[in-house]
Design a protein that fits this description.
Oligomer: single chain
Distance between the termini: 79 Å
Strand content: 5-15%
Radius of gyration: 24 Å
Amino acid sequence: MAVAPRLAAIAERFLGSALPVRLRAWDGSESGPPDGPVIVVRHRRALRRVLFRPGELGLARAWVAGEIDVEGDLYAALDRMLEPLQAERATPARQALAAGRELIQLSGPQLPVPPPVPPEEVRRRGGPLHSLRRDRQAISHHYDVGNEFYEMILGPSMVYSCALWGEGGEGGEGGESGEAAEGGRRAEGLDEAQIAKIDLICRKLGLAEGERLLDVGCGWGSLALHAARHYGVRAVGITLSAEQAAYARERVAKERLEDRVEIRVQDYRETGDGPFDAISSVGMAEHVGAARYREYADQLFGLLRPGGRLLNHQIARRPNPPGKSYRPDPFIDAYVFPDGELAPVGRTVSLLERAGFEVRDVESLREHYALTLRQWVRNLESRWADAVRLTSPGRARVWRLYMAASALSFEHGRIGVNQILAVRPRPGGGSGLPLRPRAWTETAGTAGSAGPDRTA
């Protein structure tokens, strides 16, 4: 009997519904709906991976190893498959055993049991969760894969968080972008949209000439450089990635801003040379972990002077359903962000407040991240051969899957991203912030133009 119909029957028993995509097996047989994307099972070994790691991780290992692929629209395939895969259902033991025996028969008894794990997967994690050593290992796994690789995906802005798009976004009908919401600026493309986001952060923080800015998780230095160049601040950027730090220092030297920008390989827990007037933390707090988040909030609070401002830009998940506990996505944890943890935005706000911050504004940029991720995927796909050359076929496949799946998660509201503006109150309760909320939307790109009201 042909392989694909047998695989489809097994999948439908586990999914509890008809197969939402077409399936093609290594013998050329096909099964499933005739329209839409096709899941191609290129090698028998993929079945063994699913057998020994049922669910997302087994499929992810087969994807990274190139044993399964998608023909057609990757987004459509993921959209149809992710929800049934993530749904929790109990498969009767007798049915599971029968399916397992059939998978063994189809995969062939001569294959090793279990198959070797793709080398791109995190295998060992030393030290307690979110210890200094283990966090450095996790950050190195994700970020120390080559600056040229990231340049290819991110573009010249070298910003690895969501951009700020206009109403039309990037790549819409006709490729037109609308007026940006902030200060009438237009986001013509990815780089322009990233600069618009960086400038929004500077204006929310009310940066002014001569102030000290700490950029926690500074990446390749883009925010620190922009703040020094356009707002006249003295910036300190910290990262745990040696490759990021080397790249950022080269940029600082090239722009002759050594007297304004310092880049350190340093953990936020090891930073003790406050006070700072402002702190930005963009796309970093997801690495902190639930058990350490209050410590993170306390540390940043202590590094600010009274009246100092914090801009915390962080991905958030939906709250747990009643009776359910949070579990990190197994693919993301094994291949992308080891030990990363997402929290609901309400919990983040609460912990910042417990540390002493006054939260002044929360802005969701969820749709902006989906647009950004789709642009990163386009960049990757357009230079696929270069991506493989710079890393490995498996690493390139990891990034393509994670970015495409994340774009859909933002679009469907499974996850979001929020900018939280908070202040360390002055004695007596003064904030030093403008009386009108969101005053930063009125002026764009002028050094100190939306600075805090020093009389408040």
